[in-house]
Amino acid sequence: MRKLMLTGGLLLLAGCAGFGIPRHDPTQAWIALESHQEDTALQALKVDNQATDDKRYFQVQPGSHELTVRYQFPVQSTNIGPGAGPLWRDCQMNVKFSGFNAGERYELQAGNIGFRPWAKLYDQQRKVIGKGTPAGCQHT
Question: Signal peptide location in the record (predicted)?
Fold first, then answer.
């Protein structure tokens, strides 16, 4: 019985994992999100101060846009002090870019150095075309 429940649960999760991301609209630019480090979370929050429908990616009209992302990450004890456990940070960053093109794919990566988060926007040729500016952090 346990095997049946476990197998059914895994099949359900596998089905959900591949379901739900829409096809790229060729009339818009697609921005994939990539967290640069383990045990982190990167989410799409806003485009031009309007909430996104899906937290997993951005899809925008060609032109100029400001993207707001949420990046959650642990600060390891080596950056805090001996004997301390990891401290979780919940940060928002804004990335502006004025040249999004229809049909092109971009990637927004995030990571951190100690307490400081960073974000970079890459074009299809892996050229950095935008960098994140901090929009506030809190400890969780």
Answer: 1-19
- State how far the alpha carbon of 55 is from the alpha carbons of 21, 34, 37, 85, in Å: 11, 12, 18, 29
- Does pLDDT of 52 surpass 90? yes
Which two structure tokens, joined as six digits, stand for 9?
């649960």
Within a domain: 104: yes
Range(s) of the domain holding residue 68: 25-139
Total domains in the chain come to 1
Residue 9 lies in a domain: no
Query: Considering the domain boundaries, does residue 37 fall inside one?
Result: yes
Going by C-beta distance under 8 Å and a sequence separation of 6 or more, which residues neighbour residue 33?
42, 43, 44, 56, 57, 58, 69, 107, 108, 110
What are the φ/ψ torsions at residue 16 (nearest 5 degrees)?
Answer: -70, -35
- Flag whether 16 is in a domain: no
